[in-house]
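The methods section describes the discrete structure representation at length, but only in general terms. The central task, working out the structure tokens from the amino acid sequence alone, is never made concrete. Nothing conveys this as quickly as seeing an actual entry. For illustration, here is how one protein appears when written out as sequence plus structure tokens:
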Amino acid sequence: MPTSVETVISRPEAARWNALPSGVLIPNSPILSAADTARLMGFPSREALAKARRTGRLAIEMFTLPGRRGWFARREEVCAWLQQSLNREEPVS
């Protein structure tokens, strides 16, 4: 069973990722791409994330950057959403 980020992905690549206390791997960057945001938020694709953003169903703010194509999200905001989502108590059935 993997015990650290380095055992999950190659060492040079591992410096670009952090593991949250929940074990979720998140890029070590203040700004996340739409692809990373979609993966972390459980969307099946960037297109599904874009549709949620366009229809106002996205729980975080996304933004564009001058000179860059696509949409981006703040790492802190995605981490907060993840923590909130993972800390919800599941109803007992």
